[in-house]
Design brief:
This protein is α/β, with parallel strands linked by helices. The protein has one domain: 3-Layer(aba) Sandwich (Rossmann fold), CATH 3.40.50.1820. Helix content is 33%, strand content 23%. The chain has a 9-stranded mixed beta sheet with strand order 1-2-3-5-4-6-7-8-9, with helices on both faces. β4, α1 and β5 form a beta-alpha-beta unit. Keywords: Hydrolase.
Amino acid sequence: MSWQPYAARPDSTVTGTLLQWENVGDANHAARTVLAWLPPSYGSQPEKRYPVVYFHDGQNVFDAATSYNLSEWGADETLTALAAEGLEAIAVGIPNGNERRYHEYSPVRHPGFPPEVEGGGGGDAYLVFLTDTVKPLVDGHLRTLPDAAHTSLIGSSMGGLISLHALLTRPDVFGGAGVMSPAFWACAGEAFDRVRRSPPMGGKVWLDIGGREGTDHPERQQAYWDDAHAMRDLLQQGLGERLRFQADPEGIHRETAWKVRLPEALRFLLDEQV
């Protein structure tokens, strides 16, 4: 197996060079097709190495044709535009495990699930899958800068939670976390407890939130907003200028909102001067 050209569909919306590696899995994770987007200069500058940004929910990152929400993050178009500013990176999309998404992205079990149901708690195993299976396929076959300072993760909702969890628990591997529209309520405050218990954080955190997350559940909508601001205050104590926070009162819980905020998030995570 190896990286192969992306199997585009007639209605695909991919910009630039996208590769795929099929049947990537381990003992705890069903096989899935991992995607890797290459920056514009990759083919013309054979000696150059690039930072890497890992995206959760990878089926929604590059191609609306594969998105289960019929909309995409537009990471390929955003990174193409950022390349013109001198910021280039390889972007890797790891698709979620469909009905196991919550389990994979949650560091703790949800107290409301009975013991026989996989109700979270797979977050650490997912990070092992990412660091021990996915990352070697990227670093071993593509021209990356593999150190933590040049390796970031980004995700939304539960994907935001697992990105922050990775920065807290694996600072040897990851140096940046994009935490978009985090669903802190879904893990009963675990993230706050872990931040308080952890040693001073290294790296950088992009944190954002919309004012219209969870519009069908007014209490949950308020929880999204309040928890994000509380986490901002907590992280600010240790990160200072290495934290960037953005709140959009009109932002919804959807790829269209994350697509709008993505350029600034990637500028922050990829800027080596911060």
